[in-house]
Amino acid sequence: MPGLYRAIIKPLVTEKSSAMYENRKIYTFRVACAATKPEIRDAIEHLFTVTVKDVRTMQMRAKERRAGGLGRGRQGRRAKWKKAIVVLKEGDVIPIFEG
User: Fold this and answer.
1) What is residue 72's predicted lDDT score, i.e. its pLDDT?
2) Cross-sheet strand order for the sheet of 8-11
3) Cα→Cα distances 80→8, 16, 24, 62, 84, Å
4) Does residue 72 lie in a domain region?
5) SS3 42
6) Is the residue at 99 inside a domain?
7) How many separate domains does the chain show?
8) Distance CA 27, CA 17 (A)
């Protein structure tokens, strides 16, 4: 069981997550694979002093990758990871995503 500071790894700021934030005030985070929804909720509420309304999680699958060319390259896999999509109470904001 990861602690509060280990549950949240980093915020995900991409074009898609920025559009979700601007349109619907939905925040996206990369979280520890072992973190559960209640742990993620507690971590975000304590770290950012906001009220979490909903938490959705998804496992992002590992992807194969290759380095080099002509078949001599090394093959490997990127590690799997977990994404959390968080909806806050109306009026709450997380300053990391603000500009």
Assistant:
1) 64
2) 8-11, 26-31, 81-88, 52-60
3) 16, 20, 27, 4, 14
4) no
5) helix
6) no
7) 1
8) 7
Q: What is the CATH number of the domain that holds 39?
A: 3.30.70.330
28-77 pLDDT, tens digit each: 999 999 999 999 999 999 999 999 999 999 999 998 887 765 566 677 88
* Candidate from 17-21, 41-45, 95-99 with smallest mean pLDDT: 95-99
Domain extent for 18: 4-64+79-92
Residue 1 pLDDT exceeds 50: no
Residue that has been written with the tokens 């799997």 in this structure: 80
Q: What predicted TM-score, i.e. pTM, was given to this entire model?
A: 0.84
Residue 98 lies in a domain: no
Identity at 37, one-letter amino acid code: K
Give a yes or no: residue 11 inside a domain: yes
